[in-house]
Structures are given as C-alpha cells and as structure tokens.
Write a structure and sequence with these properties.
The structure holds 2 protein chains of 2 kinds. Chain A is mainly α. Helices cover 74% and strands 3% of the residues of chain A. Chain A has 26 helices and 2 strands. The N and C termini of chain B lie far apart (54 Å). The chains are: A mainly alpha, B mainly alpha.
C-alpha cells in the first residue's frame, strides 16, 4: 500500500541530522527559525514513519525489508550502513518520532527565551536522528555508531544548563556511566565479528542458530548485555538516570521515554536471538530487570523531588521491560516500552508544566492544590499516572499485564510476585505524588498558572495516546501488536482472569493507600517516617549506592591515580628531565675546553692531525701486512 | 756527505721548533715568526724533494716560490691584525686575545 515509503525510509534518519547541521552551521542566530526547522524535520520524519508503519502493519508486510551498502571495508572487518525495517523497527519509529515531535513542540513553550534556544533544538534534532539511526540499523557496527551518538546527544542535553554545577556533573556522570556499559557492548560486538565474521543481524541470527559453544555464547551475551545495562539504566549502572533530570524537563521526557533508555531495551529485543540462545543469560537478564524494578520502586516511595520520583519510576518500569525480555516475553517487553514511552513522556511533560508554572520549584511538599490553577496539567497527569499504575483499560494495564502473564504462565512465580509487588508500589508512589501536588489539603501555590497551549496540547495528545495505545496489544484487537513484533518460537499465553484481577486490585489498593495517607491523612505519614526512620533514611539516600561508588572511586580510582601520578612524576618526568640534565651537564663540562685562547685551539688541531696521521700510518702498515 | 735525509731531518727540526713556538710563545709577533719558520721548513722539503726525487721538473722550486709569496702576504695581513688588536687592548700577548671564550 505504502511500499514506496520504504524506499524513502533513509530520510527518516537524515532529516533530523540535516536540521542539526543547518542549525549548527547557519541558523544559530535565528532561534525561531531553528525551532521551526527542527520541528519540521522531525514532523516529516514522523509522517514518513507513520507511512512505513502503515505499510508494515496494515499492508501486512511479512518479510523484513533490508537494504545495505558497504561503509567500511578492511581485512577481517566489514561495516555496512543499511536499513532494516520490520515490525519491531516500525513500532520504535512511531514511538521515537511521535514523542520527539511532541517534546519539541512542547519545548517551544518551555524553553522560551532561553539564550541557548537554537542549540537546544540542534541537540534535540541530533538526539532524535541518532535514535532513529539506531533503530533502523541492520548491523551491530552501525548500531554502535548511533548508540554512541545517542550518548553524546544526551550528554549535551543533560548538561544543557552547564552553568549549573549539578547539571554539568550529571552530564559527566551520565556519559561516564554509559561508557562503562558501552565498553562491554563494543567488546561483545568485536567478539561477534571475530567468531561469526559478520555483524549483520539476519546473518548473525543464522550463524548463532547453528553455534554450539555455549560458554563463548554466554560470555558474548553478557558483554553485549553490558550495553543495555548502561543505556537502559539497570542495576548496577542505574545511577546516571535520576541525575539526568538536571537537564531541561522536556529532555528528561525524551530520555526517559523514547530516545535514550529505550535504546537498551530495543537492543535486547533486536539481538534477542543471541540472548535467548542461552537460558543462563536469560535468567540473568530477568533477575537484573526484576531486581532493578523492585529496587527503584522502593526508592521512589520516599523521594521528595517531583522529577526524581518520576525518574525512579522510569528505572522501575525499565526493570519491568528487561525482566520481560529475560523471561522470554520479548513482545510484552516491547509493548510495555511503547506504552511506557507515551505515558512517561506525558508525566514528565506535565511535571515540567508544573515546574514551569511555579518558577522552578521541584519539591512536592512546596506544591499543593494545583488542580484549581492548572486543570489540564492535573488531569493529563492523572491519566498518565493511572496508565502507569495499570488501571484498566489504560495502556499501562495491557502491557503490564502481558509481562505479569508471561512471568506467571512461564513458571517464573518469584518474578511474578515481585512484579505484582512493584505494581502495588508504583500505584502508591504515583498517587502519593498526585495527592500531594495536585490535591491535598495544603494552601496551594498563589502564583501558579496553567501553561500556554503550545505546552498543553502535546499533553492532551499524549494523554489520548496513554489511554488508547494499549488496545493494539489487547485481546480486544486480537493481540495485533504480538503479530508484528515477534520472534521465532514465540509463545502466546491466553489471558488469565486471575492475573488481570490481581494486578488491577493491587493497583487500586496502592492508590487507595496513597489516598488514605496523603489525602485523608488517616495515617500520619510523618509519624510513619519517624517509626521506620532506619528504612526511610536508607531509601531516601537511594541505598547509598552513589556514596558506595564515590567511596570505591576514592579508594581505587584515586589510589590508582596516585600511583600513576608517582610513576609520572618520578619515572616519566625523571626520564625526560634526566636526558635534559645529562645534555646540560655534558655541555657544562665540555665548555671548559673552549678557553678563547688561540694556542689551545691550535694544540687541539695538532692533536687531531697527529691522530689522523697515526691512523693513516697504522692503516698503511695494515695494508702492507 | 750531506744527503736527502739530512735535508729532511733539518726540515723536521725546523717544523718542530715552529710548532713549539706557535704553541708556547705568548707574544703574537713571535707566534707569527714561528709560523714563518714552519713555512720555510716546508719550502726546504719542496726543494729537497725536487732535487733528489722528481728531478726532471722544477715543480718543487715553483711551489717554494709560491709559498714564499703567500707567506709574505700572510705576514702582512697577520701583522695588520696584530696592530689592530694592539690598538684595542694595548697588548700583544695572546693571553689577552680571548674574545672567543664561552
């Protein structure tokens, strides 16, 4: 139907990059024009993505579309640049371009008057372009290039207000933490090239299927897994994501929903054939994901910063997705990624609207009763939170249920119970936030006002998406999502009424508990805090993970640095300075031969002549003999 | 009978005396004179070799004449230099001619 759109798919990547180049080179003096161009580029990308998705989903495209050309050729390593379009790619294209487009429109209002308006849009463009290049990549080499570009763009945007010390530190932290994971990913990719001789996904899929050396496969999988752990902020490399909210709030929305953390989950889905080849690695992925989900949810229970709560909820939901991958429910994981992208970007943008309205305040206890002043923000936020909590029939309900069903029916009872517990916590901390910020009994903030339409309209669109996006994977539409985003040997479980009922009940219970504590104040939360002060402090300080890393850094990195410093000062510098001193010293000694006395020089000449004559004579004798 | 070896011996002695003079005399004029001594010992060698070894040509004598001419010119330049230095330093001692020092 729209087959021609596949031929133009390369434009989806190129347009944002072209916008970036044009803004960076020519338009940085005209902020409005920069923004128009950037929004136009991502808008066109979105349009093309819709056509591609329409072709894939509605046109019933069965085979994958792949074009490729050689980019780098050398003995033993060929890197291609290409496009790979299948159901998975199409979903990601829609998610990335739609969220990026709405975030860019929203940013028009949020970033209005910022001195770096132009460069902000340039970075936004390169961020979106890098992510689109990543999802369209048909081989690991290209994927890695765009993977790093995503990291670079996130660094630029997190540190966008680099005048603030905390933003600068957060940007560096995000970049370095990601480097740790990327290092593993790069090693894994090189291993793949060495073992299988190709980096192409379909080529690798064929090779891995016939490969029997499990030990090597496990090593490679774990190395590859390091990339998603860093990018998708799984434990123990999760520390950068909560700090990444130092960037402008629309950037947080983009990072948390579509362009950054989604890359890791997408990589696991794209390389699912490698991970699923070894049950041990799958178990590891499931455990990491499940642990992260629980770990982050507990932290989110006690945070006071509106963006920090959302950041930990993102961590928790990413843990959900990774856990879904680990238990083999790849489709459910991707489904949750999609729905999460809509409602989490909605939540972040709404939070940005709140922060924008009350002059940069982020502490939830200094807000209150905002529903009267900002009705659109409030109700869109509530819709996002309901979707996140998994209340039927909103999008989060369907995707979360798919994951829980996968865990339950797949026999992972422990992970199923853990997931249900996390669902309860999610509902609780989200509605704790809502009751404190938007309802509550507080006196409210005087100067709060509703945001301009350029900000509220994206919120409304995302709210609609947060409500309806889940239906594509629901029984109501005959699991349409699972038909296109799938993998060989996918198992489909029939919906279980028990799982649905329990997950809905715990979500409602979580909301009810939050309502009882923070709205009705039947239970005084300050007294609770006193009684469990030990746990509270532990959670509030995020299990002291940052402090632990800081301590380790101090101990080991700083210690190593000290040793290397010593080596540098005494060995490297010693060598260099020693040579200089030797030359200087030799000069000092030899200069005493230069007396200025003509007769001394004459004596040297005589000595020289004697030596030469002597040599000639000796040589003459030698010749005679 | 005085032979070739005697000429060579005399020339060597003269040359050695000249070197000694060049290296040891502190008076610049004396050094110049010692150089003349060395040049003359060489002339003696030229003439002697011309007489005893390369007898059919007068090359050695010719060279001796050239050396005498060059030596005369050299002495003229050398003395002019010494006078010029003397005007600057009020001395002809080589110990005072040490401007080329480190």
């Amino acid at each position: 139907m729209f087959a021609w759109s596949l031929e133009l798919a390369w434009l989806i990547v190129l347009l944002p990059f072209a916008a970036f180049a044009l803004i960076g080179l020519f338009l940085h003096r005209w902020p409005r024009l920069s923004a128009y161009l950037s929004i136009l580029a991502i808008g066109l990308s979105f349009g093309l993505s819709v056509l591609v998705a329409a072709h894939v989903f509605l046109g019933g495209m069965q085979e994958t579309f792949e074009v490729s050309m050689r980019w780098l050729a050398m003995p033993g390593l060929n890197v291609d640049m290409g496009l790979l379009i299948d159901g998975l790619t199409a979903v990601m294209l829609i998610v990335v371009t739609s969220v990026a487009l709405l975030v860019q429109i929203y940013s028009w209002g949020y970033m209005h008057g910022d001195p770096g308006f132009s460069s902000y849009y340039a970075y936004q463009s390169v961020f979106a372009g890098a992510m689109l290049g990543l999802v369209l990549a048909n081989n690991f080499g290209q994927l890695f290039v765009f993977w790093e570009l995503v990291g670079l763009a996130s660094y630029l945007l997190i540190g966008f207000w680099f005048g603030r010390h905390s933003a600068k530190n957060a940007a560096v932290k995000a970049f370095i933490t990601n480097r740790v994971g990327d290092f593993g990913l790069l090693l894994g990719i090189l291993f793949l090239q060495i073992i299988f001789g190709t980096l192409n996904f379909s080529g690798l899929a064929a090779e891995v299927a016939g490969y029997t050396n499990t030990a090597i496969l496990i090593v490679v999988s774990i190395l590859l897994l390091a990339g998603p752990i860093g990018k998708s902020a799984q434990f123990p490399l999760h520390v950068w994501l909560p700090d990444a909210m130092e960037g402008p709030t629309p950037v947080s929305a983009l990072i948390h929903a579509a362009t950054m953390v989604a890359a890791g989950v997408y990589l696991i889905a794209r390389a699912f054939f490698i991970f699923s080849a070894t049950p041990e690695v799958m178990m590891l992925i499931a455990v990491i994901g499940g642990f992260t989900a629980l770990f982050a949810a507990t932290i989110a229970l006690v945070q006071n910063d509106i963006k920090r709560i959302l950041a930990y909820s993102t961590l928790s939901q990413l843990g959900y997705m990774v856990m879904a991958m680990g238990i083999g429910a790849m489709t459910a994981g991707m489904f949750h990624l999609m729905t999460h992208a809509f409602f989490k970007s909605l939540l972040f943008l709404a939070a940005g609207s709140v922060i924008h309205a009350i002059a940069g305040e982020q502490d939830i206890w200094k807000m209150g009763r905002l529903k009267d002043k900002m009705p659109i923000t409030t109700w869109t936020f509530v819709i996002g939170a309901l979707a996140l909590a998994g209340i039927p029939p909103l999008s989060g309900f369907w995707s979360k249920d798919e994951i829980l069903l996968g865990a339950f029916a797949g026999g992972y009872t422990g992970l199923y119970l853990l997931g249900t517990l996390v669902a309860f916590m999610t509902a609780f901390y989200m509605f704790r936030l809502i009751f404190v910020v938007f309802f509550g009994s507080g006196k409210g903030v005087e100067k709060a006002h509703e945001s301009p339409p350029v900000m509220t309209i994206p919120l409304i669109i995302l709210a609609v998406m947060a409500v309806i996006a889940g239906f594509v994977g629901s029984p109501l539409m005959d699991y349409a999502f699972a038909r296109f985003v799938t993998y060989p040997g996918a198992v489909h479980y029939e919906a279980s009424t028990m799982v649905i009922a329990i997950s809905s009940l715990v979500a409602i219970a979580g909301i009810g508990l939050a309502w009882a504590i923070y709205q009705k104040e039947w239970i005084n939360h300050l007294q609770m805090r006193e009684r469990f002060s030990g746990i509270y402090t532990l959670l509030y300080n995020k299990y002291y993970i940052d402090e632990l890393y800081h301590w380790l850094g101090q101990r080991f990195v700083y210690g190593t640095a000290k040793a290397l410093f010593w080596f540098d000062i005494y060995v490297v510098n010693g060598l260099v300075n020693g040579l200089a001193a030797l030359t200087g010293g030799a000069g000092k000694v030899l200069r005493y031969t230069e007396t200025g006395q003509v007769q001394t020089y004459a004596a040297y000449m005589l000595a020289g002549v004697i030596v030469i004559v002597g040599l000639v004579v000796l040589a003459g004798f030698a010749l005679l003999i | 009978m005085i032979g070739f070896q005697h000429y060579l011996l005399l020339a060597t002695i003269l040359f050695a005396v000249g070197i000694y003079g060049v290296l040891s005399k502190r008076n610049a004029v004396a050094v110049l004179m010692s150089i003349e001594l060395m040049l003359n010992s060489v002339n003696l060698n030229f003439v002697a070799i011309n007489r005893y070894i390369v007898t059919d040509q007068a090359v050695g004598q010719l060279f001796a004449l050239i050396v005498i001419v060059v030596a005369a010119a050299e002495v003229a330049v050398g003395l002019a230099l010494i006078i010029s230095i003397f005007r600057q330093r009020k001395s002809v001692s080589l110990n005072d001619f040490n401007l080329l020092k480190w």
